[in-house]
Amino acid sequence: MKMSQGVEWGLHCAILLGQMPAGKKLTRRQLALHYGVPEAYLGKHLNALVRAGVLAASGGPDGGYRLARPPEAITALDIVTAIEGSTSPFVCTEIRQQGAAALPRELCLRPCGVSAVMAKAQAAWRKSLEDQDLASLIEALPRSVRERIAARYDAQSAR
Amino acid sequence: MKMSQGVEWGLHCAILLGQMPAGKKLTRRQLALHYGVPEAYLGKHLNALVRAGVLAASGGPDGGYRLARPPEAITALDIVTAIEGSTSPFVCTEIRQQGAAALPRELCLRPCGVSAVMAKAQAAWRKSLEDQDLASLIEALPRSVRERIAARYDAQSAR
DNA sequence: GCCGCGCTACTCGGATAAGCCATGTCCGAGTTGAGTTGG
DNA sequence: CCAACTCAACTCGGACATGGCTTATCCGAGTAGCGCGGC
Q1: Distance between the two ends of chain A, CA-based, in angstroms?
Q2: Residue A158: which pLDDT band, with cuts at 50, 70 and 90?
Q3: What is the pLDDT of residue A159?
Q4: How large is the C-alpha radius of gyration of chain A?
């Protein structure tokens, strides 16, 4: 099992964008240079975030990405599911209904215990991510780090 | 992100083996036929469970697999990690230390917030799986299902 | 009748090939701002 | 001086190659029971 690298990128980019003053945008090139990641591939993941309604993109000169909602209204789960997909990593193929000892349909109305256990664990995982909003992630950054960011992108800011 | 199919197989096989009377073994062929899955590939996952100390395998005539410990001492997490590996699906590549805005080493002594959030979610997932032992999974099976299993593998049983 | 040995059949285990998804890249469509020109 | 038009550069977005991991399979090493032969 391997999670897409884009999740890390998306989270960091969202945290970075959340520190920008209102209206300020960052291009995917800026984001890619900031973290030293391939620009085009990063764009692919940013696009997924736009589709999910987490980021907003605009084209043309002075275009770029910004948060589509205030950081308090964006959870880590929003970002992860936008990039990674909302389908559970575990898929129950109902093997209890297959093979030589297949159970008849009427005994399989309830989900099997295996599926239930995995679903429960997945729910716990999602809950943990849902309880973390972007604002708290930004607040948790050391002051010195936030100052570096602010100094780098002061850019007489908002438009 | 996609979890290996073998996790489902391993869990079901462990539940099945846990219902056998003490000493009774099942060959990988029996297990594969029972669930209608490819025998050789199933063996690969069963082998992983043996390496992890969850199952015990024996060769020769009347060989096969059995639980290495009583069902109460085996958790769902044991089985999942044995097959899926114990490495976290999320790997932090420390992109905060890379790229044009790389942070100096002395500001990165603590793990970054992103890594912490993902690790916390992963811990919640593991905890959920760890709280489920094999015995409770077997107990949760409908009585009719357990009877079918018993009837199928009565085989004057233990050796 | 009993013990030891060899054999055989059966088991698992690791080394060996295809398929699919994540990765990585490219070029094109769309948009916005600025410059220019005419009124 | 102002407004509208044209242009051009810059942006993102989707279509196109590549690699690694999961899947799938085969054959070989090891083992335990069984039968046979000798004592």
Answers
A1: 43
A2: very low
A3: 42
A4: 20
Cα dihedral angle (B69, A90, B113, A34), rounded to 10 degrees?
140
Rounded to 5 degrees, what are φ and ψ at A133?
Answer: -95, 165
Give yes or no for residue B157 having a pLDDT over 50: no
| pLDDT tens sequence across B104-125 | 999 999 999 999 999 999 999 9
Find and give the residue nearest to D26, measured CA to C1': B40
Whether pLDDT at A133 is above 60: yes
B-facing residues of A in 80-119 (CB < 8 A) are 84-85, 89-93, 95-96, 98-103, 107, 113-114, 117-118
The Cα–Cα gap between A125 and B123 comes to 8
Q: Which two tokens stand for residue A119?
A: 């679903």
Token match 């290495």: residue? B68
- In the stretch 128-147 of chain B, residues with CB closer than 8 A to chain A read 128-129, 132, 137, 140-142, 144-145
CB A54 within 8 A of CB A67: yes
Nearest to A8 among B4, B95, B125 (CB): B95
Task: Tell which residue, A114, A118, A96, A115, has the closest CA to residue A106.
Answer: A96
Q: Is B122 helix (H, G, I), strand (E, B) or coil?
A: helix
Instruction: For residue range B45-54, list pLDDT tens digits in order.
Output: 999 999 999 9
Q: In this structure, what token pair is assigned to residue A35?
A: 């973290």
Whether B16 and B28 have beta carbons less than 8 Å apart is answered as no
